[in-house]
């Protein structure tokens, strides 16, 4: 039986989410080294993954000839500098969202990757979820009709961050999916937010994105909520769709309902409701497998650096809107 050759991937940052990357990369047979500033974490990893090289120095990963690519799951404030150094060392790079905290830095990374002919991929994980891929197919085929509006809720009690607000922590997921479905950039963004737990770090934000023509998108994110909700609703002229990532089964539902005009009067059309089921798969595994395949084949990732820049431009406009008291900001 043919077995694809191992691609040496080193991981920078092994906190809460980095551990999930470590587990998947190890199970896939590609994890060769991990860098983390915590001696406790490194000791734990060395005990969990036999033969794994561990270090507290990022440069050790870059000097290692067995490291073909670097996956970055460090705090967002470090993403730009770590990715820049990895690209300069001629390593292919996977960066967790966001690509950077500043649009010019993200654009510089895209340019650097292009000049050095390196793969640069951003961890917009929902774009690898089978339900979102199917939803994209429905949108592109015209099954939903014209998309009128999309709204997304990403709510939970915690995990509260201190170095980034809720917008930068939660909303990149929703923005990446909305841009995917709309197939266009918004013309403007308006966001209102408030901080209740920590001064100047917003716990709750509400965003409206205005797309060319009539389509609109709304994003509500909060880590100060009594229950967990991760739901995306797409309203089309023909059909409607709901993606609920909290339920175990039946995450994607299609509703054949809407409003029709008869004799000058609005009439509710409500016919079939269908639930779509998908094979059990971990989106993170699909995402990392795609990255490894791009490293092998040199093809452009689905969520490449340019994709990361688009999401960042929307995030930046939302942040500027918050700082201006919710005034719309043109992109």
Short note summarizing the structure:
With 331 residues, this protein is of the alpha/beta class.
Write up what this structure looks like.
The chain has 331 residues and is of the alpha/beta class. It has 2 domains: 9-123 and 283-303, Rossmann fold (3-Layer(aba) Sandwich), CATH 3.40.50; 127-281 and 313-330, Dihydrodipicolinate Reductase, domain 2 (2-Layer Sandwich), CATH 3.30.360. 34% of the residues lie in helices and 30% in strands. The chain is built from 9 helices and 15 strands. The strands form 2 sheets. Strands 14-13-12-11-7-10-9-8-15 form a 9-stranded mixed beta sheet. A 6-stranded parallel beta sheet has the order 3-2-1-4-5-6, sandwiched between helices. A hairpin with a 3-residue loop joins strand 11 (224-236) and strand 12 (240-244). The termini are far apart. The mean pLDDT is 94.
Please supply descriptive tags for the structure shown above:
34% helix; alpha/beta; Dihydrodipicolinate Reductase, domain 2; 331 residues; globular; Rossmann fold; nine-stranded mixed β-sheet
| Count of individual helical segments | 9
Question: Low-confidence parts, pLDDT < 50 over ≥5 residues?
Answer: none
Assembly type of the chains comes to single chain
Strand tally is 15
Strand order of the largest sheet: 14-13-12-11-7-10-9-8-15
Q: Overall mean pLDDT score?
A: 94
CATH topology of the largest domain: Dihydrodipicolinate Reductase, domain 2
Number of domains: 2
Helix % is 25-40%
CATH architecture of the largest domain: 2-Layer Sandwich
Strand content: 25-35%
CATH class category name of the largest domain = Alpha Beta
Head-to-tail CA distance between termini: 51 Å
Largest sheet: 9 strands, mixed
Q: How do the SSEs run, as a string of H and E?
A: EHEHEHEHEHEHEHEEEEEEEHHE
Alpha-beta classification: alpha/beta
Task: Identify the overall geometry.
Answer: globular
CATH superfamily of the largest domain: Dihydrodipicolinate Reductase, domain 2
Return Rg in Å. Answer: 21 Å
């Amino acid at each position: 039986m043919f077995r694809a050759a191992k691609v040496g991937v080193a991981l920078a940052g092994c906190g809460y989410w980095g551990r999930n990357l470590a587990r998947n990369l190890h199970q896939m047979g590609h994890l060769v080294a991990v860098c983390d500033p915590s001696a406790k974490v490194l000791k734990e990893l060395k005990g969990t993954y036999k033969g794994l090289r561990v270090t507290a120095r990022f440069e050790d990963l870059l000097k290692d000839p067995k490291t073909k690519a670097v996956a970055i799951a460090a705090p967002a404030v470090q993403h730009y500098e770590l990715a820049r150094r990895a690209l300069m060392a001629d390593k292919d790079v996977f960066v967790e969202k966001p690509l950077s905290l500043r649009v010019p830095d993200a654009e510089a990374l895209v340019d650097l990757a292009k000049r050095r002919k390196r793969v640069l991929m951003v961890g917009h994980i929902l774009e690898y979820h089978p339900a979102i891929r199917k939803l994209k197919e429905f949108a592109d085929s015209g099954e939903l009709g014209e998309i009128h509006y999309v709204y997304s809720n990403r709510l939970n009690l915690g995990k509260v961050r201190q170095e980034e607000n809720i917008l930068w922590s939660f909303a990149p997921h929703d923005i990446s999916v909305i841009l995917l479905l709309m197939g266009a950039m918004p013309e403007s963004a308006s966001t209102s937010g408030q901080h209740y737990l920590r001064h100047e770090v917003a716990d709750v934000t509400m965003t409206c994105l205005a797309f060319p023509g009539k389509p609109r998108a709304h994003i509500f994110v909060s880590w100060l909520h009594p229950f967990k909700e991760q739901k995306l609703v797409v309203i089309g002229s023909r059909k409607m769709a709901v993606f609920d990532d909290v339920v175990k089964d039946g995450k994607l539902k299609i509703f054949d309902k809407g409003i029709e005009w008869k004799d000058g009067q609005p009439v509710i059309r409500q016919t079939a409701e269908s639930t779509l089921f998908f094979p059990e798969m971990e989106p993170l595994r699909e995402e990392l497998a795609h990255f490894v395949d791009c490293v092998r084949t040199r093809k452009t990732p689905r969520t490449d650096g340019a994709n990361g820049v688009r999401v960042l431009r929307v995030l930046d406009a939302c942040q500027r809107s918050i700082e201006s008291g919710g005034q719309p900001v043109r992109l």
